[in-house]
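Researcher: Please predict.
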Amino acid sequence: MITVTNQPSSPLFTSALDSFSFKIGGERATVTITCEGEELLSETYYPVAGTITIYDLGTLISDAVRTTVVAKCAIKIVEHNGESDVANWSCEFTAYYATVDINMSCQAFLDQYFLTLLDGAKLTQLGHREYLHAAGADRTTAAVTARYYKDGKVVEGNIAADATPTHTVNNITTFDVSPDRYYDADRGDLFAYTVTVGKRVQDFQIDHTEAVADPVLLFTNSFGCQEIFYCLGKKKIAPTFERKSAVISGKKINYSVKETRTFEGDTGVIPPSMAHFAEDLLRSDEIYLFRDYTQDKEITFTDSKSERTNELDDMAEFTFSYQYAQRVQNVVFKNIDNTGGRIFDDSFDDTFN
């Protein structure tokens, strides 16, 4: 007889999976774990005091789920006594990739929040790209309310649904909520807008200082989805060179010069609502430069500083160092598009493949 003591719920975040335990009366048991039909584990275990425990199940499944963000998984147990199979047990569950510990059920989070660590309004600018990702119930249609300032008055207007393109893969819908999609000179100066998808709500506030963002970073967040961070602080470039020289034909020459180009980035001052979002950038293990509205060179963070306080008026500012991930460090970018302007086309650029 197989008695499972902590059966996985469905759906669940991979971060919520730790150990998996069950009791048997037989000599041994074979455990098989699959995700989308692919076998991740098939091992025979012997009980200790009648109990078998498999540890670190979350890491095993997380590695398999990361590329698709969500997957159907199954656990099958066969109990053996001698040469005979005496009992069978199985369960299926839907696993969502996550590296964050959330104090609510997976289903409740999916139904009420976007797949981001934003904790309130996000600052953005005209010309910036903004995306939101949603899973769970009521996730296919966005309602957008934009606020404009004209002739000393605030004008609020609802935006047509077709102004917000969507793209759905594996039951996760991505919304292009870039501010230029809601720009309307006839209504006035756009200064804020709110995106609502089912019970999910995300506010955006427009920064009209026209500060230049450098670098702009495309990163994989704690839910396996890609987001964009615009760094508005000072950037510093500090290349170093490792030279090897020798005397050849009576002359001392450098026969090898190895360059490592290190950049120091600065998020700029960010509100408390974006602090967790900025920290998510720093913990990401997949980061790219985002240039000309497309994914560009992959980079690797080498250091970061992200201190902040719990004071109500504290405005955080994080700094970090990074290098190109590739071997060749001598990278030169030529301007492809100097318009630097707004995105008025209605096509959805699926950056996140």
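Model: Residues 57-65 form the longest helix (9 residues).
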